[in-house]
Amino acid sequence: MLELLEQCESLPQHNLAVGDTLISEGEPSTALWVLAEGTLEVRKGDLRVAVISDPGACVGEVGLLVGIPATATVVAVTPVRVHVAADGARFLRERPQVAVLVARVLADRLYLVTTFLTDLQRQYGGTGGSLAVVDSVLSTLLERSGPTSEPGSAREPDPRY
Q1: For labelling, which of 19, 53, 59, 106 has a CA lying 20 to 30 Å from the CA of 1?
Q2: 3-state class of 73 per DSSP?
Q3: CA distances (Å), 83 to each of 43, 98, 129, in order?
Q4: Which DSSP state fits 18?
């Protein structure tokens, strides 16, 4: 990730205080943000899904690349300094080496998710119940190459989760 930070050092900087929101879930955003220092918390609704503190980590890339509103809220949990490409799509077109680095980050995340789901499938796939859906999720992730899908579920959430 340090390589991504090095590639973005010429971009404008933005500072956040503790509690400041960088990105709001559901809001349109065309920016790509690269963490220089500090710690960010990623939230989906009220659920914390990640804490980011590695310099060079990027945020905002999923909505930017897929062309959808922000998929999560990102909040500073310490003082934070980020570099920002306000027109992230143009920045990635003009800097293909940065686009490749962002693609590597996304590929790594996909690898981790599919590895985790595969492990769940190995451990619990034959037991039925709610984990039986792992096979379907894995298949969908690995075969997906079509148009943008809509996130969410048609079923009612299980109150046990």
Answers
A1: 19
A2: strand
A3: 21, 13, 45
A4: T
Q: How far is CA 28 from CA 24, 62, 120, 123, 144, in A?
A: 9, 12, 34, 39, 24
- The CA R_g of the chain, rounded to the nearest whole Å, is 17
Lowest mean pLDDT among 18-27, 29-38, 52-61, 109-118: 109-118
pLDDT tier at 161, thresholds 50, 70, 90: very low
Distance of alpha carbon 106 from alpha carbon 32, whole angstroms? 14
Query: What is the chain's mean pLDDT, rounded?
Result: 86
**Residue 62 CA to its chain's centroid (Å):** 6
- The DSSP-derived string for 102-159 is HHHHHHHHHHHHHHHHHHHHHHHGGG-GGGGGHHHHHHHHHH--SSPPPPS-SSPPPT
Domains detected in the chain: 2-94 (2.60.120.10), 110-143 (no CATH)
